[in-house]
Structure formats: C-alpha cells, structure tokens
Write a structure and sequence with these properties.
The chain is an alpha+beta fold and 183 residues long. It is built from six helices and eight strands. The chain is globular and about 45 Å long. Bound molecules: coenzyme A.
Length: 183
C-alpha cells in the first residue's frame, strides 16, 4: 500500500466491482484512454480479475473513506509495447469524472513514480496519451515526463479506430534531479 497526503493506493479487490462499474461506465473515462465504457458489473468484475488485480496495479482511494475513485498502474514488458527492456515500465491511469481537476492523479502518479524508481529500481518509466487528451498531457507534464515521439494511425482494436499517439518518458536521472531541486 502507498500513501500521499490525500490518497491511499491499494490493490484492487474483486468486490470493488460495483464501484468500478460506477466510474468505468462513464463514457468520459475509458474512451480517452482507449477502452470502451463498461456495460455491466459482470464486465467490471471480469476486468478486475483479468486486468486490475495484479502486482503494481493500484486502486486510487481517498484517505477519508478508502473507496476507489481511479486506477493507476505500472505495466511491464509482458503487456507494454513501450517498456521493452529490463528496468523499464509504462504508467497508465484514469480517474472518476467527479474528481477531475483537483490534482489527484499527479499526486498519485508522483508517489507511484517514487515507488518505481526508489523501491523497484526502475531506470525509465514511459507514458503515452492520444491526440486531444490535454488532461492526460498535463498530468505527464506536471510529473516531469519529457515528450519523445508521435505515431500516426495507432490501431485501437477495442475502439475500432485509429488515433495519433504521443509518447513521453521519465528517466531515473531526471527523477533524481527533480527530487534534489525540490529539497
Ligand atoms: C487524465 C486524468 C487522469 C487527469 O486527472 P486529474 O486528477 O483530473 O488531473 P489534474 O487535476 O492535474 O488536471 C489535469 C488537467 O485537466 C484539466 N481540468 C481541470 N479541471 C477539469 C475539470 N473539472 N474537467 C475536466 N478537465 C479539467 C486541466 O487542463 C488540468 O490541467 P491544469 O492543472 O493545467 O489546469 C483524468 O482527466 C481522466 O481520468 N481522464 C480520462 C481517462 C484518461 O484520459 N486517462 C489517461 C489516458 S492516457
């Protein structure tokens, strides 16, 4: 379990299915990240089993009530197209719409990045967003990610469309420099 001033990051559990469905059925949440809105609590339970209940995948919860309001995870080479080498992973996230604009995801992501670099010994964390997703671009900018390249016509099998994808990276060196500057 990881903690910040306002948040607890804890593993997802299968009985989070109703809460997950509540947020993930919102058409504003999944599609910008590349997945369709959930259609039933059964679908949410299946997503918990197959995708969310695994190591380094966290439910983002407010400290005051412990209920999940978003998701944040590190993906390794088994599931990530970006993190191909040893010591690399990819950051992914989404947040329930009522909580947007409060700086919650940057706060959660900075703690998971600390964990990735300081406790997991990562050298490089990748992150991406699709063209037009300014909110996600800002999260990456606030966390210190540096833009790398843009790819046209990225296939989105779950969305049945192609998009333009932007990729950025945060290196251990940049992370350490940022931490030193903060002190
Ligand atoms: C991307 C996302 C996680 C941002 O989380 P967040 O905690 O709201 O992040 P922030 O509070 O730092 O806000 C980021 C930007 O969103 C915009 N924003 C602010 N308030 C907003 C609101 N009420 N509604 C919509 N957007 C808002 C602002 O541009 C803000 O940047 P700023 O701080 O420079 O003003 C969230 O919007 C989300 O889950 N979106 C859908 C899923 C998604 O896109 N996931 C990422 C896939 S790459």
């Amino acid at each position: 379990m990881l903690q910040t001033q306002r948040l607890v990051l804890r593993p997802w559990a299968e009985n989070d299915d109703k809460t997950l469905y509540r947020w993930a059925s919102d058409p504003a949440v999944g599609p910008p990240a590349g997945w369709p809105p959930h259609k039933s609590t059964d679908e949410s339970r299946e997503v918990l089993r197959q995708i969310l209940c695994r190591p380094e995948s966290y439910a983002v919860c407010l400290r005051c009530d412990g209920v999940p309001i978003g998701s944040l995870s590190l993906h390794f080479s088994d599931v990530s197209d970006l993190a191909r080498a040893e010591g690399e992973c990819e950051l992914g996230y989404w947040l329930a719409r009522p909580f947007w604009g409060l700086g919650i995801m940057p706060e959660a992501a900075m703690e998971l990045l600390r964990h990735a670099f300081e406790e997991l010994g990562m050298e490089r964390v990748w992150c991406g967003y699709y063209e037009g997703n300014e909110r996600s671009r800002r999260v990456q900018e606030k966390c210190g990610f540096v833009p790398q390249w843009t790819t046209q016509d990225v296939d989105m099998p779950q969305m049945h469309e192609k998009r333009t994808g932007h990729v950025s990276v945060l290196t251990r060196q940049d992370w350490l420099a940022r931490r030193a500057a903060e002190k």
